[in-house]
Write a structure and sequence with these properties.
The chain contains no helices and five strands. The chain has 77 residues and is mainly beta. The protein has a domain of 32 residues. A hairpin with a 2-residue loop joins strand 1 and strand 2.
């Protein structure tokens, strides 16, 4: 699972730490919590990793998800 940030049209250094928490053909819940110093990423309610902010947390404008998967819903809270 690659984490990165696009700032000023330039991609930063990729982060890939952690095992792949997904299983083929299994439904999963993926959550992003935008905290003061980092984005906390949970898979099925368990912490997977954190991604330290590279810019102000209020300036985040999107999330990009790629891969062979089907998204069944998105909630923003």
């Amino acid at each position: 699972v690659v984490r990165n940030a696009l700032i000023g049209g330039v991609w930063g250094k990729e982060e890939r730490k952690g095992k792949i928490p997904f299983e083929k053909d299994k439904i999963f819940d993926l959550q992003f919590h935008n905290e003061d110093s980092a984005i906390q990423i949970l898979v099925n309610g368990e912490e997977f990793t954190t991604f330290s902010h590279r810019a102000q947390p209020n300036n985040i404008m999107g999330v990009q998800i790629q891969g062979d998967l089907e998204i069944s819903g998105i909630q923003i809270q």
